[in-house]
Amino acid sequence: MAWVFLGLAGILEIVWAFFMKKSQGFTLVTPSVITIVTMIASFALLSVAMRSLPLGTAYTVWTGIGAVGAFVVGITVLGEAVTPARIIAAALIVTGIVVMKLSSSH
């Protein structure tokens, strides 16, 4: 179950990052509230996952899901640039997540 909680925490990290961008520096109420609520939920799920997963593994996977997910949302929803360097960087993050997951005994 820890991995499920961690995956959900990572997805919520993508959501709060997106809505933080949409909040225009916390000047718009609805996106700001969504940011804060999903941020709290993401941290809560991460903390539950950390009960049984190693700190380094849980935190690395959580931030990796958020980073790559925000990268994909930025490209697909916000029209951000797709460059070879950015794609390589995202691929390296995904590789790191996979290696971290495989190296965990949990």
From TrEMBL:
GO annotation terms (biological process): xenobiotic detoxification by transmembrane export across the plasma membrane
Cell membrane among keywords: yes
Subcellular location: Cell membrane
Keyword Cell wall biogenesis/degradation: no
Chief place where the protein resides: membrane
Residue ranges of the TM segments: 27-46, 58-79, 85-103
Superkingdom classification of source: Bacteria
Family: Belongs to the drug/metabolite transporter (DMT) superfamily. Small multidrug resistance (SMR) (TC 2.A.7.1) family. Gdx/SugE subfamily.
Name the UniProt record assigns to this protein: Guanidinium exporter
Source lineage: Bacteria, Pseudomonadati, Pseudomonadota, Alphaproteobacteria, Rhodobacterales
